[in-house]
Amino acid sequence: MSLRSRLSIAVAAGALAVTALAAPAVAGDDPDDPRDDWGQNQTQNQGQGQNQGQDHNPRLSRGVVTASSLALRSAPNRGGQIIRWADRGEVVSIFCRTNGQSVQGNRQWYLLTDGTWAWGSARYIRTIGTAPRWC
Q1: Most exposed: 3, 41, 61, 115, by fewest CB within 10 Å?
Q2: Does 134 map to a domain?
């Protein structure tokens, strides 16, 4: 692996670590916070006559897990610590995308905001609607 690749992964991992440290102190304080779970907004809108998904934060994209079980990691590579597992069909909120370790020819990884900040390989997440912005 080249020095450039290692450096970009280290920078992304560092940014994730800093964000994870700050997240508990501010989570839930701001209704426009991109860390809010899209699923919570979706559930709150059901039965209220509102069009589902309109409260979805426009800074976030959505995706559906296509793998039977997908490891969500602390860094955009297969060596990152597994934070949690996502099952096939799970809808996830995507904060941004970056290039990381290639997974079956796909170098893109998505930073997910569903309860935890974790990286998932784009190879196993099909986006819904707008493509995620770059980190």
Answers
A1: 3
A2: no
Question: Phi and psi (nearest 5°) for 24?
Answer: -60, -30
Buried b (16+ CB within 10 A) or exposed e, 43-71: eebeeeeeeeeeebbeebbbbebebeebb
Question: pTM (2 decimals)?
Answer: 0.61
Residue 66, Ramachandran bin (φ over 0: left; ψ between -120 and 50: alpha; else beta): alpha
Q: Which of 112, 128, 107, 131 is nearest to 20 (CA)?
A: 112
| CATH number of the domain that residue 110 is part of | 2.30.30.40
Q: Rounded to whole angstroms, how far apart are CA atoms 113 and 78? A: 19
State how many domains the chain has.
1
Residues 62-100: tens digit of each pLDDT: 999 999 999 999 999 999 999 999 999 999 999 999 999
Phi and psi, residue 39, nearest 5°: -60, -35
Contact criterion met (CB below 8 Å) for 102 and 111 = no
Give the type of residue at 95: F
